[in-house]
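Hi team,

As requested, here is the filled-out complex form for the NDP run. I kept the field names the same as last time so the parser does not choke. Let me know if anything looks off before we queue the next batch.

— J.
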Amino acid sequence: MSMIKDIELDHFMNGVIRRNPGETEFHQAVQEVAVDIIPHIRHNETVKKMRILERMTEPDRIVSFRVIWEDDKGNIRVNRGYRVQQNNAIGPYKGGIRFHPTVTQSVLKFLAFEQVFKNSLTGLPLGGGKGGSDFNPKGKSDREIMRFCQAFMTELSKYIGPNTDVPAGDIGVGGREVGYMFGQYKRLIDRFEGVLTGKGVEFGGSKIRPEATGYGVVYMMQAMLKQKSQEMAGKVCAVSGSGNVAQYCVEKLLELGAKVVSMSDSGGTIYKETGISKDDLLWIMNLKNVRGGRISEAEAGIGAEYLEGKRPWQIECELAFPCATQNEIEADDAKSLIKKGCKAISEGANMPSTPAAIEIFREGKIVHAPSKAANAGGVAVSGLEMSQNSLRMSWSREDVDNHLRNIMADIHDQCVANGTNSNGDVDYFKGANIAGFEKVSRAMLAYGAI
Ligand code: NDP
Ligand code: 2IT
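And here is what came back:
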């Protein structure tokens, strides 16, 4: 990213902002890509004439629908559901479903846009999409979750299919919700087909899919450290979040001998100076996945310090792994991380760093993998789940993990190949943007003006 004024970039972004009023998260995600792509295509008249970047920022379609369900007290509840089908130039739309009260069209458009680049980087034939609802799963009974998932899928089923659009999980959507949605789809369509990924292994799910995003985030960090002739063992790591991605990120870090000193949820952060142990992690997994508890309970449960309302970015660490949500690292957090000794960041959450934070990391020469590269392991194993479903086969843990390792190593190498600056430093943001863009752009050019 250059601080020099770029008239073409300003003109492009003004158009995006005008066409998508008020959608600030979407503007942010597009801006982060455009800063690298506009200079990259400056002298490519074909790409410019064919309006490839403009077309990529316009979703193929967005469906939005009413979701009506009945709570345990017999009240009728109303939510809004969406699916953003962003781009299917290189494969069926693919991307998760998020259930969280902060879900808006803007949030899903930013996620769908990012997904196109991420899925391209995996090297698999996957287009990009995202869906979800403003439904809040917190405090809901299992039956209420089931009824909501069934109602949501009743409408969504009209727009998806194994060769059309293949949803998966995201915040608030894990194995249980995918099970309920898959069951409802199968009942409605009367076909057993791989329309969702993240399924249970009994009905077509892939081994390692639950672990894949978190493991991949760590494999990316490993590759970046290797580039600097360093290794993971002994490194002090700050992790945020305590959901699916954070849990398996911590599991892999512990396996590699790193010291993890924090996890968090939307209420606050737990800090354990001596390091979270494997038993502590199992305790947290049970708290979050079985009991539905708050991370504050870990103060008593595993003897950690609880920092109410705080994020983990004030803690001393060498490596940081944001694994909660968008914009969870702001400018002050970025400054604090650098002051406390952080040298590298691998993003598990989607777009966790604000533009100001990214700039501070860049100036501080922090090695920083963007989410579209670092968390691509999840969707990559989703792609492998689709392959296994098509083959009517199921691969071993070892096979899937080997594929995942190779895919993450390849994504790292694509970033290096496309993002190495003249001074030898790797700009992983630029590398991921350009490599992700190129494949989709070439496919779109091949199709002509459609
Ligand atoms: P989960 O629902 O399993 O966990 C989400 C975690 O993030 C929880 O600890 C939650 O805390 C916290 N969190 C959510 N929203 C907020 C918020 N607004 N402020 C503070 N904390 C928040 O989701 P995942 O682990 O699946 O997803 C985490 C991130 O990883 C998301 O950005 C997602 O898009 C991304 N991701 C997920 C993939 C996957 O395969 N699941 C793949 C690639 C990226 P609380 O319990 O208090 O809500
Ligand atoms: O953001 C993401 O990449 C995901 N939530 C996973 C998408 C998928 O289809 O597995």
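Two things worth flagging: The longest strand covers residues 76-87. The first helix runs from residue 7 to 19.

Thanks,
J.
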